[in-house]
Amino acid sequence: MMKFWDGTLPKPGQRTVEDMRSVLADFNACAENTLYFMYRSLSMNPGDKEWLSARCLRYDITVIPPCLLGDEYVKTKGHYHPKAPDGFGFPELYQVISGEAHFLLQKRDLSDVVVVRAKTGDVVLVPPGYGHVTINPSNETLVMANIVSDAFKSEYEFYEHNHGAAYYELFGNVFLKNPNYGDVPKIRFVDAFEVPELKILHNQSIYDLIGDDEVLEYLNNPVILEKINFKI
Ligand SMILES: O=P(O)(O)OC[C@H]1O[C@H](O)[C@H](O)[C@@H](O)[C@@H]1O
Fold first, then answer.
1. Residue-level pLDDT at 2
2. Where is the Glucose-6-phosphate isomerase prokaryote domain (predicted)?
3. Which residues lie with the beta carbon below 6 Å from any ligand 1 atom?
4. What pLDDT is attached to residue 4?
């Protein structure tokens, strides 16, 4: 695996198969090792740390080694974000640092389900109102970074209650509808895309946006995305 961070890393949060059981296609799946590691609130220097905390933002790295849980590819647990004070859900900016990712996004009212395919260097903006699961559909370790508001708590209940997202991704890139959901739309598949007006560009590290006073404002004021008519 490539070196993904220059400097000391804090102790990561970890999720094991036991933490994930409620959201897996196969409730009895086994895995010996930690499924993924979450390095939260990283910064390369005290200036960046101060800039991030003054804006209530954090930069995290998540590492997901390849693994199959029964037939299902390893993935994050999945959650929604609440609404920001401006009435729109908190978004989240991601970048694949190495490996491959499928971002499985679903609207709260389940009127839309999207899989965003992303490869190394690609950027993905999870829009307001979408829950998200990140799948590692390859046999390489997925390392991804995110910048997100630190002003909210992720909401896991819907995913736990419904045993995961609306679909599971199984070996061979087969998407299986989760039987605990009623009617859900077919998946729309899209490739990760840039959002130049927000300086979200493939192969340009999202870390470099730290310190730019305007460009990350939408992370706490998601109405900005509405104004530019951002759609996934
Ligand atoms: O919270 P989970 O569903 O387990 O997903 C894991 C990821 O979720 C969020 O998006 C965080 O900002 C990441 O730092 C974290 O690694």
1. 55
2. 16-180
3. 15, 38, 40, 60, 62, 76-79, 92, 146, 148, 154
4. 86
- Please name the residue whose Cα sits nearest to atom 5 of ligand 1: 76
Contact 90, 219 (CB under 8 A): yes
* CA atoms lying within 13 Å on the CB side of residue 206: 29
Does this complex have an ipTM over 0.85? Answer: yes
The number of the ligand 1 atom at minimal distance from the alpha carbon of 40 is 14
Nearest to 4 by CA among 124, 98, 99: 98
* 126, two tokens: 């999870």
Closest approach atom of ligand 1 to CA 159: 3
Q: Is the dihedral of CA 174, 177, 178, 179 positive or negative?
A: negative
Atom of ligand 1 nearest to the CA of 15: 4
- Helix runs in 83-222, H state only: 157-161
Tell me the whole-structure pTM to 2 decimals.
0.97
Model confidence band, residue 213 (pLDDT cutoffs 50, 70, 90): confident
**DSSP assignment, residue 14?**
E
